[in-house]
Amino acid sequence: MMHNLTIAEQIKGLKNREFSSLELTQHYLNRIDDSKLNAFISVTSEQAITQAKMADSILSKGNALSLTGIPYAHKDIFCTKGIKTSAGSKMLDSFISPYDATLTEKLNYQNMVMLGKTNMDEFAMGSSNENSYYGSVKNPWDTKKVPGGSSGGSAAAVASRISPFATGTDTGGSIRQPASLCGITGLKPTYGRISRYGMIAYASSLDQAGPMTRTAEDSAIILNVMAGFDTKDSTSANKSVPDYTQNLSKSMKGLKIGLPKEYFSEGLDKGVEKVVMKAISDYETMGAEVIEVSLPNSIHAIPAYYIVAPCECSSNLSRFDGVRYGFRCDDPRDLNDLYLRSRSEGFGNEVKRRIMIGAYALSAGYYDAYYLKAQKVRKLVSEDFKKVFKEVDVVMGPVSPSAAFDLGSVKDPVSMYLADIYTLSVNLAGLPGMSIPAGFSGNLPVGLQLIGNHWSEELLLNAAHQFQLKTDWHNASPVD
Predict the structure, then answer these.
(1) pLDDT > 90: percent of the chain
(2) 441 beta partners
(3) Catalytic site includes residue 160
(4) HSE on the CB side for 39, CA within 13 Å?
(5) Buried-state track 253-268, b at ≥16 Cβ within 10 A, e below 16
(6) Residue 386: is its pLDDT beyond 90?
(7) pLDDT band at 444, cuts 50/70/90?
(8) pLDDT tens digit string along 52-61?
(9) How far, in Å, CA of 399 to CA of 172, rounded?
């Protein structure tokens, strides 16, 4: 079946006229219609059919680009001209973007086919995809479990084969954690590698877009298109983009893998630990060398992150005031009532919680005690990684402390925040990180996390691809 083909295989199939983009697109739209996962907020069927027909015309003329005609799902945090962009929030339920995000433009330039916008935690705040105004996404491996968040809709769509790839964003693990919980490949590139212009901001110094695919090879193909400098984004890195597919076949012989002792302490599920350690031993059989390393300040990453991110979110979300665009309350008595009720009614509980934390930490008398101190801790976390990367090429470990947990089972917000314990440090340091399928704990998938030095996406993709040549976990599917 077409949905079981990787993107690399679909590119060949389109080129060799084995099927058309229209056939491929209609096949996925039919699967989306049959899906019960709540993975999509908007399905753009009419536009997708039009784009597919245009792609077929370009393919027939022989002047197609690498991804022409390939369907994809777009996380509903990226602005799409003329189409609702909600960020999973009631606040933006009626917002039709007047422009495209840079990433959207890049995918459109390739003449790709957008199937729709995927469900997500509101404003990307969450680790379970239970904070969406549009309801929870379900994990395709067990519909009573969470898919992870905030890119849970994207992860569930790729895992259930209703889209060959999806865009995601990662502020504290929101690509890697759902990729792990849904058994797919997810890549968070170095901060600044992909433009953030037109990506609705949560925490501007942490947010980064990335691809969510079945395989590392597919992620490399997609990253070639997604990456690049953008003059419209002041945080975009003015660095040349290599061909990420070029060095996928390099041997793992001599690769130095760092194993942080802090990642294998109390709190890590035994089933997850077993899967991760088996994957590490697979790398050893491929010729890699494993070295124990230490990231002593990683234990401070959660408190530091949950000061820095809420501070930035309270600033970014101040623009949603009921005046310019977005949700507005009915019949406000005065301007103060308009602000108060529009924000109270438009934002969900988790978003309001983080705005309040951030506003408090940034207030007079508390800035030095909280925000400034958190930034100093952030520097220490980054310095830890700098020291480690003098010894090793890549750091490996778990993505999440456990496999997917039950929907509605985690009531305490602080307990939910602990789900990000192994991913947050990567964002604080601006490093690239990946999750690749590494096995199962019970009947649920478990991901292996790969962390690289700045701009080492090529190395991570190479290491991930070599693992996927030796194992078959990335081909495991929860559907036929």
Answers:
(1) 97
(2) 444
(3) no
(4) 35
(5) eebebbbbebbeeeeb
(6) yes
(7) very high
(8) 999 999 999 9
(9) 11
Measure CA 354 to chain center.
20
204 is known as an active-site residue: no
Tokens of 77: 């945090």
- Reported as a single tens digit per residue, the pLDDT across 193-216 is 999 999 999 999 999 999 999 999
Q: Is pLDDT larger for residue 344 or for residue 365?
A: 344
pTM, entire model:
0.97
- Mean pLDDT, the chain, rounded, equals 97
Helix crossing, 216-226 with 7-15: angle to 10°?
70
Active-site residue, selected from the candidate residues 35, 97, 160, 174: 174
| Active-site option among 150, 180, 236, 298 | 150
Q: Which pair of structure tokens corresponds to residue 21?
A: 């983009």
pLDDT confidence bin for 266, thresholds 50/70/90: confident
**Catalytic pick among 20, 35, 42, 75:** 75
HEC assignment per residue over the chain: CHHHCCHHHHHHHHHCCCCCHHHHHHHHHHHHHHCCCCCEEEECHHHHHHHHHHHHHHHHHCCCCCCCCCEEEEECCECECCEECCCCCHHHCCCECCCCCHHHHHHHHCCCEEEEEECCCHHHCCCCCCCCCCCCCCECCECCECCCCCCHHHHHHHHCCCCCEEEEEECCCCCHHHHHHHCCEEEECCCCCCCCCCECCCCCCCCEEEEEECCHHHHHHHHHHHCCCCCCCCCCCCCCCCCCCCCCCCCCCCCEEEEEHHHHCCCCCHHHHHHHHHHHHHHHHCCCEEEEECCHHHHHHHHHHHHHHHHHHHHHHHHCCCCCCCCCCCCCCCHHHHHHHHHHHHCCHHHHHHHHHHHHHHCCCCCHHHHHHHHHHHHHHHHHHHHHCCCCCEEEEECCCCCCCECCCCCCHHHHHHHHCCCHHHHHHCCCEEEEEEEEECCEEEEEEEEECCCCHHHHHHHHHHHHHHCCHHHCCCCC
Instruction: Give the CB-side neighbour count of residue 266, counting CA atoms within 13 A.
Output: 0
Give bridge partners of residue 165 from the DSSP assignment. 213
211/165 Cα distance (integer angstroms): 7
CA 32/CA 66 separation, integer angstroms: 25
Catalytic residue status for 278: no
Which of 137, 139, 181, 135 has the alpha carbon at shortest distance from 160? 139
Distance CA 400, CA 182 (A): 12
Among 221, 225, 154, smallest CA distance to 184 is for 154
pLDDT digits (tens, 9 = 90+) for 295-339: 999 999 999 999 999 999 999 999 999 998 999 999 999 999 999
* Residue pair 296/387 in contact by the 8 Å Cβ criterion: no
